[in-house]
Amino acid sequence: MHLTPAGELDIDSDPAFAPVWTALDDHIAVVACDMRCLTFLDAAGLELLLDLAAHLDGRGIAFFAYNWQRQPLRLLDLIDRITPTPSQAGDRSTPTRPLRRTLPRPGYVPSRPVSPGHPPVRPAGSRRPC
Prior knowledge:
Blueprint: E1 2-3, E2 7-9, H1 14-23, E3 30-34, E4 38-41, H2 43-58, E5 62-66, H3 70-82, E6 85-86, E7 92-93
Parallel strand pairs: 1-3, 2-4, 3-5
Antiparallel strand pairs: 6-7
């Protein structure tokens, strides 16, 4: 299943998630959440995402969130800084860890230089997806 939340994810967003919960069935193995269009995230929206990730984990469904924008990512960083929690392994985990499965860890250094590649090519007259 592929999700692309757009705009704001806040306390008023709960009804927007109802179709997601309904669509989850035994045929879903992975939920990929593309955050490129999410411009604002507050604590209530973060709780919605964490609840979804926990529910999926409990059902054995992988959850990946990627393409985080600046403001939502800053909220994740802030929450992790102020509320670290001990994991069952005894190390320090973070509350937003389920949402960071595809984000590089702090201090990550790739084994080889990363090429910036080429900018995407859009057909003439096409619009950005967000």
